[in-house]
Amino acid sequence: MLTLGIDGGATAAKWALRDDSGKIKEGVSEPIDGHTYRPESKARLVKVLNEIKAAAGNEKISAIYAGITGTSSDPENNGEIIEIFQSIFGEIEIEIVIDMVLGYRAHFDFGEGIFLYAGTGSIATYLTETGKVVRAGGWGYLLGDEGAGYWIGREAIRRTLTAIDTKSAITKGSLEAEVLDFTKCKDWNGIKEFVYSKDRSAIAALAKPVISLAKKGELAAQDILAIAADYLIDLVLQIESVVAKPDLPVIFAGGITEAGDFIIDLINIGIGREVSLSKVRIANRAAEIAAENLA
Questions:
Q1: Residues 128, 243: contact at Cβ < 8 Å?
Q2: Domain locations in the chain as residue ranges
Q3: Which Gene3D superfamilies does the record cross-reference, listed alphabetically (predicted)?
Q4: Is the four-CA dihedral 71, 76, 81, 86 of positive or negative sign?
Q5: pLDDT band at 99 (very low <50, low <70, confident <90, very high)
Q6: d(Cα 147, Cα 172) in Å, to the nearest integer?
Q7: pLDDT value of residue 100
């Protein structure tokens, strides 16, 4: 028998099938989310689950633990998603949680620390000793997610548009030049089409060249990352103020960790201690939790 773990985020769905000996088979599929009231989200989820079922072959999947962005922190509100899983895998042990609860459990036991995540979006999470979720941020790109990939990409675009509107010189190697090159645009009309015709992941993808420029010393890119760090610091401090535990260990995960020491050093200063970077394969850990749920 197999257990299945899924780490379903806005960039990709990473999954792991674990057999009784602990051997893992991993895979990556297109992004999934918990917004099953949208026909396209529901169809994409069904497609990915059928891909995973096919990868399992003739072996039965006996339990599933899945962390999926856009689901509810209240298990009672995830009934429709569980029904979709059951329609494909049968009435087996299935637990669906928000992706950041999975992220937390992949790194900490209950009540042990703070999980800070900055990928496309941003959130800090703490689970109490009884499993209650305490969160800061994670409101989505329309309401928040400051300091994460989409926000960084959007800020780079905004600064480029300001340079265009004010007819400022755009020099080779500058943030503005990088944005125009990345988007293959020359003016507001081109950028407008890029922004409003693309998925949010296309804008979040701009974070990588911004990070690269910051490492090379480009001042505007460094300024964006410094502001991003301030937002991420605030998420940790919000959790601390709610749980009244000021010295909890912090693990930092997500694509924005690629900024390396530049952003990590700022976060360390802001929270008064060093964060640790995630080294866990989260989908693999999810498959282990699924097996533990059967025990």
A1: yes
A2: 2-108+281-294
A3: 3.30.420.40
A4: positive
A5: confident
A6: 26
A7: 87
What is the CATH number assigned to the segment(s) 2-108+281-294?
3.30.420.40
Contacting residues for 32 by C-beta, under 8 A, at least 6 apart: 6, 8, 13, 41, 44, 45, 48, 68, 69
Q: What is the largest distance, in Å, between two alpha-carbon atoms of the chain? A: 65
Supply the pTM of this predicted model. 0.84
Beta bridge partners of 5: 16, 65
How far apart CA 234 and CA 246 sit, in angstroms, is: 13
Please give the angle made by the CA atoms of 227, 232 and 236, to the nearest 5 degrees.
Answer: 145
What one-character DSSP code corresponds to residue 199?
-
**Of 103, 4, 12, 20, nearest to 52 (Cα)?**
4
Environment class of 120 (CB within 10 Å of its CB; exposed 0-12, middle 13-18, buried 19+): buried
| Closest to 258 in 3D by CA, of 181, 152, 155, 172 | 152
Whether 29 shows a pLDDT value over 80: the answer reads yes
Q: What is residue 179's three-state secondary structure?
A: helix
- Per-residue pLDDT reduced to its tens digit, 184-237: 999 999 999 999 998 888 999 999 999 999 999 999 999 999 999 999 999 999
